[in-house]
Amino acid sequence: MLTVASDVDVLARFGRALADPIRCRILLALRQAPAYPADLADALGVSRTRLSNHLACLRDCGLVVTVRDGRRTRYELADERLGLALDDLRAAVVAVEADKTCPAAASDGCC
Hints:
single chain; mainly alpha; Arc Repressor Mutant, subunit A; two-stranded antiparallel ribbon; globular
C-alpha cells in the first residue's frame, strides 16, 4: 500500500539518496533512460552487488521503481518529475570555497 509522504520526508529521502556519488550517478543515468542492473553496473564501472545495494536504497527512498520485462527487471525513475528536479539541481549555482569540502554525513546509512 502506497502512502503519501510529507514534504519534509520527501526532501529528506531525496537528500539521503543524493548523499552518495554512486546513487547520484545511477539517478543521472536513469534520467537519460530506464536501464537493467547489469547494464548500469557496466556503464558506471561498479560491481553488480554494490549496484544492487544502491538500487535497493533508491527503491526504499521511493525514487526508482522496477518494471518486469519478461524474465528481466528494468529500473526507472519513479516519476518523470524527478528527472526535472535533477536537471534543476544540476543547474543551480552553489557557492563553494575552493579549499572547502562538504563534511561527511554522521551516518552512512541509507533511507
